[in-house]
Amino acid sequence: MTGEFERIRRIVEVLGAQAYGIGDDCAVLAPGPGQLVASTDASVGGIHFRLDWIGHREAGWRAAAAALSDLAAEGAAPAALLAAVGVPASASDAELVAVMQGVGDAASSAGAVVAGGDLTGGPTWSVTITVLGWAERPVTRAGARPGDGLWVTGRLGAARAALAAWRHGDQPAAEAREAFAHPVPRIEAGQWLAAHAAGAMIDLSDGLGGDARHLAESSGVAIDIELGRVPRSPACDEEARRLGVPPEQFAAEGGEDYELLATLPPEFGADDAASFARECRLALTRVGTVRYGQGVRASLAGRPLSLAGYEHFR
Amino acid sequence: MTGEFERIRRIVEVLGAQAYGIGDDCAVLAPGPGQLVASTDASVGGIHFRLDWIGHREAGWRAAAAALSDLAAEGAAPAALLAAVGVPASASDAELVAVMQGVGDAASSAGAVVAGGDLTGGPTWSVTITVLGWAERPVTRAGARPGDGLWVTGRLGAARAALAAWRHGDQPAAEAREAFAHPVPRIEAGQWLAAHAAGAMIDLSDGLGGDARHLAESSGVAIDIELGRVPRSPACDEEARRLGVPPEQFAAEGGEDYELLATLPPEFGADDAASFARECRLALTRVGTVRYGQGVRASLAGRPLSLAGYEHFR
Questions:
Q1: Is residue A171 part of a domain?
Q2: Is A124 an interface residue toward B (CB < 8 Å)?
Q3: Distance from C-alpha of A262 to C-alpha of A19, rounded to nearest angstrom
Q4: What's the rounded mean pLDDT across residues A2-6?
Q5: B199 and chain A: CB distance < 8 Å anywhere?
Q6: ipTM above 0.90, yes or no
Q7: Do A121 and B47 touch (CB under 8 A)?
């Protein structure tokens, strides 16, 4: 193991143009248009990822993508990220470089640079990413209004399917593995939705049930979800069947899909969703409705179904 | 132990006006004047602090102060911080709240709000703070010019004296303990120096020897330090004597003082330093000179003395 400063030098060298201005006390960034939008997100080995399931580069990508997903959910344009990495004493320089390559790949895929960070020792791998972006009209969780439609991007349940397979000692299906190891933050989708009058938005890290609850609480509204409408990945259905859980429930309770959940005005319809799909190359599906009241009511084939939350904290 | 969301609710309640906008995917902040300045800094239990040495609230303060010190070294005005806290399973809610109270105290002492964060489980306490601020004229490490004077704020060596005492199983002197447990980021001093033509600036986290080296490398210059001029805390002298190390060397090799090291134009003199002392209620002492060349040459009573670096990384 080499020292801290030599490791930083090597990371900056490998990141090349993905890094910007590393090596000073602070990153210095020109202001962008609108408001500054910032979020911090920690990924801890053994809790958020396991290195016997995914590789070091994937762990770095996943940590950065999860943080960038928060910018997507605000409708923001990413500018930069800072990476604080806790490195166990047993780690090699090559492993650390791989983690940071994953971070750099995720940053540049989202139009952001790696502008700084901090390396420390630690009992386990941890990758804490702070993302910085700009938004002319940041979309919070608090703007849902009764009558709005509830919409979701992409398809749900694949990341949970991967976790379920690993936990049973199996290899997940390729699609499920990819969803867990290489989630794509929905940056373009978030900006599109912000520009098309999204009232409230959140990214699906705690699962559709849990995140709809956050959105309903922040907005002071009730949310009805029709689980039959929720788009699911094929991998999700397969894994749910094996576990004897209705696939609709499996998908809605799974976390870490990093799709976006947004409320849109009542007049937003199928034609608008088709425009979104064409421009963002991603499905946008209506899965429910915002109502007066509080709480989340999910139903499947007309019958109520209670959704468990998904807490990462252990 | 309660769940993640209940813990966040409790923290927001206790922080009161020190917190701002917590609970969304992102913090949303109005842009300030000048450039955005950002830095992230991890404090890990057992590496950067020990909870048998300092309390939970002190650990939170210290983690936030260390990060805010990076803003000070850029001459920036702090605006907000984000706190990613890794909480061991054995931790109580009261301990977590105390850590965050320390973070909140440090933030508000520097004119910043706690604008967001992330709670995760982890094998040990860790507090990763990202600070955000604004600077009209950010001062990097790269602007030192031959002929400039090298100046340091405050007095050095007390934090190292505290560490040395604890490591020998003793209680540190009150001044030394305070320096380690409750460092004060030199925000006002940093802004004053930036406004008075500081060419380069860095905060002393790696020790005078190590940080002068960073500054010399970034600026492409050599730095001469007269160790006899370096202002020392009384606690430093006492501990150095006990260890049989020249106190001048002990102070210059100690890390984590969080004072500022700045280069100022040749014409900056004693009268200017007196103005600084009056306005910032802090000493400013000339300890060396910037030269053509490279590397750091320290001398004590006219004889060269090689300074060891101070690497936190273990």
A1: yes
A2: yes
A3: 32
A4: 82
A5: no
A6: yes
A7: yes
